[in-house]
Design a protein that fits this description.
By secondary structure, the chain is an alpha/beta fold. The chain has one domain: 3-Layer(aba) Sandwich (Rossmann fold), CATH 3.40.50. Helix content is 41%, strand content 15%. It has an eight-stranded mixed sheet with strand order 3-2-1-4-5-6-7-8, sandwiched between helices. The site of NADP nicotinamide-adenine-dinucleotide phosphate has 32 residues, from helix 1 and helix 4. Pfam families: adh_short. InterPro entries: CBR1-like, NAD(P)-bd_dom_sf, SDR_fam.
Length: 243
């Protein structure tokens, strides 16, 4: 079994996921770069290695059972276990997404990646995570999944545009994560949700105001929680995000 702490970051070829991989690599960890496109994955692995990280490519489409099974096998062969899983891959499904006009198929597509994809990857990796002394799972959510913030007045707390697929997919993810935390409460596994803030990436046409590195910070914090750290929580840099 590998001596090094081993992490897997999904959707690590660009944006926040790439910076999470870079941040974990800078800790001296071995980092699996989960990405579905061969060229984009290998380019990211090369960049991370050039920066001194022990990065390795993990072909991974979170919507594909066979791909996720193969990813778990690859990590088992390479490291024998997994210490940290960061479920970062996500899509918006395209905006605008008004509930009164949305194509139901678009909701299904977003949930398939942002929720079911995370369940698929997490359950495939759990046998490897259970072999770790301090397993951590970080699910990248968004404050747009906060019902409290979504139901504030526009000038007060409402965050993000009206969206029938993306925002509810994060609310769904939050709810599923709480259920994992309940089931895993008597294990060493800590599972939490992180919100990166509004980050300039492909996801929003680079309209965000934070850098991907800033967005990655909360995931790195949750990936490195001490054994007595929280589980089943929802956090941003400033602290707890209301449900
Ligand atoms: N940017 C923000 O302001 C913001 C705010 C709150 C939360 N978030 C969350 O942060 C996470 C990262 O977002 P980002 O802003 O960094 O977006 P991004 O730059 O668009 O990156 C998304 C990543 O997810 C990957 N991905 C999408 N579908 C996938 C699939 N089926 N299988 C594997 N990988 C897949 C993409 O791969 P490809 O390159 O192959 O498409 C890409 O690597 C997402 O969960 C997002 O919801 C972002």
């Amino acid at each position: 079994m590998s001596e090094r702490t081993t992490a897997l970051v999904t959707g690590a070829n660009k944006g926040i996921g790439y910076e999470i991989a870079a941040g974990l690599g800078a800790l001296g960890w071995s980092v699996g770069v989960g990405a579905r496109d061969d060229g984009r994955r290998e380019a990211a692995v090369e960049r991370l290695r050039a920066a001194g990280a022990d990065a390795f490519g993990v072909p991974l489409d979170v919507t594909d059972d066979a791909s996720v099974t193969a990813a778990a096998q690859l990590i088992e062969e390479r490291a024998g276990r997994l210490d940290v899983l960061v479920n970062n891959a996500g899509i918006t499904g395209g905006l605008p997404q008004e509930p009164t006009r949305v194509d139901p198929a678009d909701i299904r597509t977003v949930v398939e990646t942002n929720v079911i994809g995370i369940v698929r990857v997490t359950n495939a990796m759990l046998p490897l995570l259970r072999r770790s002394a301090s397993p951590r799972i970080v699910n990248m959510s968004s404050s747009v999944g906060s019902l409290t913030r979504q139901s504030g007045t526009a000038t007060e707390t409402t965050t993000g545009p009206v969206a029938a697929a993306y925002a509810p997919s994060k609310t769904f993810l939050n709810a599923v994560t709480v259920q994992y935390a309940r089931e895993l409460r008597d294990t060493d596994i800590l599972i939490n949700l992180g919100c990166p803030g509004f980050v300039a990436t492909d996801l929003n046409g680079f309209r965000g105001v934070r850098t991907p590195e800033q967005g990655a910070a909360i995931a790195i914090e949750l990936a490195t929680l001490p054994d007595d750290g929280p589980t089943g929580g929802f956090f941003e840099d400033a602290g707890v995000v209301p449900w």
